[in-house]
Amino acid sequence: MAGPAPLHKRSRRGFLKLAALGTVGAIIGPRQAPAAPKSLTLLHESSFIKTFDEYFQKTLVPTYEKETGIKVNYELTSVGSLPTRMSTITETGSGADITMTFLLLPFLFDEKLLDVSDIAEEAGKKQGGWYDAAREAAIVNDRWKALPFSNIGQLMNWRTDWFAEVGVTKFPDTWEELYEVGKKLKAKGHPFGFELGHGFGDNHGWLYPLLWSYGGHEVEPDGKTVVIDSDETARAVDFARKFFRDTMLDDVLGWTDVSNNKAWYAEQISCTNNAESILWLGKRDFPAIAKVTDQAQNPMGPKGRFHIMSAISHAIFSFTPAKEEARAFLRWLTDEKQLSGWYASADTYYQPLLHSYDNAPMWQVEPRNIPYRDALASAHLLGWPAPPSRQLAESVAKYVVVDMFAKACAGAATKDVIANAEVQLKQIYRQA
Amino acid sequence: MVDGRGRIARLLRMWVPLGFFLVLALFPFYWMAVTSLKPNAELYNTRMMPLLVYHPTLKHYVDLLTETRFLAWTWNTMLVAIASTAISLVFGGMLAYPLARLRFPGAGLIAMGVAAVYLVPQPLLFIPLADLINRLRLGNTLTAVILTYPTMLVPFCAWLLMGYFKTVPPELEEAARIDGASHLQTMWRIFLPLCAPGFISAGIFAFTLAQNEFLYALIFLTKTSVRTVPIGVIAELIRGDVFYWGQLMAAALLGSIPVALIYSFFVEHYVAGLTSGSVKG
Amino acid sequence: MSVSSELQCCRLKGRWADWITSGLSTMRIRPWLDRESVFSWLMLAPPLLFLAAFVGYPFCYGIVLSLQDRPVAQPGVFVGLKNFATDLKDPVFWRVASNTFIYTGIATLLKALGGLGLALAMNQQFRMKNLVRAVLLLPFIVPTVLSTVAWMWILDPAFSVFNWFLIRLGVPKPGPSWLGNPILAMTSIIVINTWRGLPFYGITLLAGLQTISPELYEVATVDGASGFQRFRYVILPLLQPILLIVTLFSVIFTFADFQLVYVLTHGGPQNATHLFATYAFDLAMGAGQLGLGASVALSMLPALALLIVALTRYMQRQ
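The joint structure predicted for all components is written out below.
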């Protein structure tokens, strides 16, 4: 194998290159490029449904360019790296004009995002009104800081064939009923598998709704008072413990988001909480399993039925040199003509948050996804009913609620895990 | 001559422990190979003996090479590794020669400083470095990582080379100095060529670290076309909660075999370099 | 060829080192430049400047960050040591600290012992030595994230070959939960780290073993020393310097490990495998708290420094 250039030659070249770079960098310095808004950059996390990204690149971009002459760069960043990328862009003041945001990001980056209330109100009026969940996702201090695009729901996935074996043909309505079915199924070798580890979607997807449906809350709506220590919370924790012990695999304590997908295709579990990905990939690669997979809303608890909201929105960076162009683009994008086509390209993986899409034809393509639409009415942001705040973001990043449940399931006493969570929350909300 | 008893002793002293280590080291690679050749149906089948493939397929390899930018990432990774290794060797050598060979005020301080740099953890640096990289307008370029990798490689190379340099007998340099050569000539002409093994061994280790790096690449390289293999693979073959296991394992193998081949050529030098170097301290 | 004639020869070929030297002589600053101190500092300048720019500056910036309340996208507010106080009161922080020490300590011990064993086994003549050496280095060469993904599969009870065998030996299905049980999860990351790092120790110690001249062995044997005594009194002391260097590097790397945990468990189950690096990352990038994240990352320094000093003292005492 021919070796690389002799060491001393290569190092000399490398050194000179470096010196040149440094000099050039020093001379040029961080100057702002003059604004020439003939192009906009939209930052998006790459969708795991390829056709969705392709629709934007191949249909929407050329259409907009024809209408206005502005080219839109669709910059894709890998799944999971969006917060990092947004941090970098915000810290340095450049890199993209419009960005996708989700969960608590509109709040965290609030000060560097433009107020888009006018576009939002207009869209709401024209397209049937926003779901309440949408407001939770994008309104910060009474102003829309992002335009909600869709929700990515986390719902129950269940094996119709195995449930039928124990005489159940409709998905159970309450947690207790689900628990009974689970016990029977575990005895037959088809346990449940709900994530209790340090993932992100599939653990919060059932733990927060469980907590809420028993009436438990972390913090009051005033955003300051920690109320996790309550009978309601204790009941939820006790339920979770018996649910884990009697219906699930032990391994779920260490699961991350990918684990339940893997377990599903390996036919290890009969029920889990997940987004549409299990069914979607199943139809493509495991048709036999997909045929007996169905989806349903979360079960109800004594205080109601809840789902978590994972809303995706679009926001404009306040430091963009192309403010008007960005607003015009978003206005155009939010129009029904563009949105309906874009939604349809992803088979309802993205659930629209405007009521006008409630009866869109795309829902009929895969009726098993309809529960995702129905869940929108009871969807809430993590940490509800407290408003989004940096303290909330901190408690989520520290897995306070998840670990509270997980520790109980692993055997700790309910009293202890709640006290532990309370200490952590009080410290985060600085009341200790 | 090896008689019967000697052979058994040899077996126990060498082949058994070696075999043990070989199995330990290679078992996950066997797993990677087997997984990358299994069709999805077999992959997820928990009832079958996991270590055997019944219907091998090259589909995952084909998908990896055609549907992802794996080759581009490999190219990027090699480029970055070679460039940052080169920079680190140059800088490492420039640090090591005076510290190992010459006397000057402040030597002890510098030596301690270089060691201290090594203690600064990457997780602390990545936020300020991200700011610096973006101010230099180097975000999403390979230059960003080529410039930042040496921060962890230079101190190591310097340390290793220092140890190596100290073992070279000073007679040749002294003779050169007597003949009137400048320090520069002495270093460049006489000393460095003698140290090739040391450079090779430092270079190999630096190369390995560079092509393995994850955190900085995660932060600085978010565009698909400029990614390195570790980041590209995790980003493209893990989408949300969907893992493309077969392709991931294929990528793992394809990513490591070329480097292993390079190693098998250089490992003799690597060992020689360490032998003369660090042992004497 | 004598040294001086070699120099003559090179001078004739007009290489750049000579060119510079002769140029400097002409300019009459050569004597000054040729002073050891001046030359040394000229040599040291470029790398030191590089390190100052890319390590020193960010390090100072990092310290400043840790003293600020600094949410992402907002200006920082100086708060003194408040972040560190928060960390000290945070139960997760202490868990993270103990995890990191346990992880580093046990893994390093296993790697050192295993590496020594490997080196001793390899220090014998046999065919295909080079091939075997290269193959044994594979765990070290393969990008960590990729081998970790493979281990994810290996450790999944449903697919794990270990569990498959254990079940057939009578262990109740589905077998141990390697990533779900906190103790087993810590064990798993230690095992993977050891698997990855052992070859590095082994090959490096092997190099050390090979410099011990055979005469020393012979003398010891003639003196009547047993195999074990030879090992303890001849080999071990001579290996000490190289063992120290390798261990120092390894400790620093292991202590600041990020990839393995990030990909495998992301700190779970219930923070049982959270390390300083992963926790700092979660706080900075997940919660958007750059100041708090920096303070956790900075807390690694005193611990690392302590480890290094302790290790150096211990080895020097031997």
